[in-house]
Amino acid sequence: MNDLTRRDFARTAGLATALGYSRILGANDRIGLGYIGLGNRGDQVHDAFLEHGDCQTVAVCDLRDDYMDFAVKKSRATPQKYKEYKQLLENKDVDAVVIATPDHWHALMFIDACNAGKDVYVEKPLSLTVVEGRKMVETADRTRRVTQVGTNRRSWKTYKEAAEFVRAGGIGHVTVARCFHIHNEWPNGLGPGADSPAPSDWEWDQWLGPAPKVPYNSNREYYNFRWFYNYSGGQLTNFGVHYIDVIRWCLGQDSPRSVTAIGGKYAGIHDNREIPDTLEVLWEFGGPTLVVFEQYNANAAPPNAKNSEMELRGTKGTLYISYENWEVVPEKVAGADEGYDLGKGYGNPLNRAGGELVSKSLKTDIEPKTVQGPHNYDTTSHARNFLDCIKSRGKCNADVLTGHLSTVPSLIGNIAHKTGSHLTWDGEVERFTNNPQANEFLQYEYRAPYKLG
What we know:
The protein is an alpha/beta fold.
């Protein structure tokens, strides 16, 4: 079967079965992958796909030749190299693309890839704005593309078990869920990062893309772009999307009802960052459940006794989650027909010295439990799920809608911080209902000639 027939099939395969796909590709054929963005996370994701023998790297795209050369050396085939991603999308051997560029490029590249008939794996966070994310969902639906967002915990078996455990009432009603980004960047952070002439004006212009034109600054590129709002939502979207995704999964909730945030550059770190070094964001989800993101970047003390990334506090117990394991610590609760004797504890206003809260009869409704995790930030299983769904035309573990719903809370958290507001959110129409001015932050005006869709 020639390449043209295989590509035509891939574009209409939303109606196809896995058996039909395998017959057309052939038993020994591999899925052709094109990579856009190969530095840092892009290189890690490339390695994850290289673990699987039923795909091959047929094209790579990056502004840096050394990144592309490094990717070519580790590939099974000899991929074509491109400096412009639209040329990669014209490559007939590319069945699917893997996008690991800075966040402000995700929407344009994702939409163009879908319109070119490619399935898409895109790193998290899905988008820089809420409007971008919704447009990406609509485009994937219209073009019937298979999509996977890089919230790789969705493909961890142990996290799936944790989510099912919580949703089944394993720790009772969850009243509070907290997540943490703890790292000490004081005193020098990124370093001074002065503006300077760009090594290449063309490359700098291409790197900025739809973002505003600003003087070249080395701190804005590569991994550090996450510290600047024109290209990223900061650590709230960088790490927070991972955590909010898992918490949403455990709670079985799509969207928050409201959000507020407070924080800033409190520590006097000596760099030119824009994002806070200290931040707390609070959302109210249905349940009701209070969800809290805590970012402390001038102190690295563990967030809790378990040193977990997330903790969910239920009426029957607490679930601590990290990439190494998840652990349930039971609560002691009163019997069904009994209550606390408040006169013997803190509840008695006359007992100013305090004391322990005592019940007539305390019991544990659940058993302690520890489940070992993958012990690393595994992306291999997430890549495997994407490849399987390309063949079956099924829904990936973290399809574009799932990724969008998990990105939105962090994006509106940043809006709450920027506006200094407590904002109510309508997840159905994706608008704020109590602050019309805040809705202006749901999208920004692209730099000409870039347009969204």
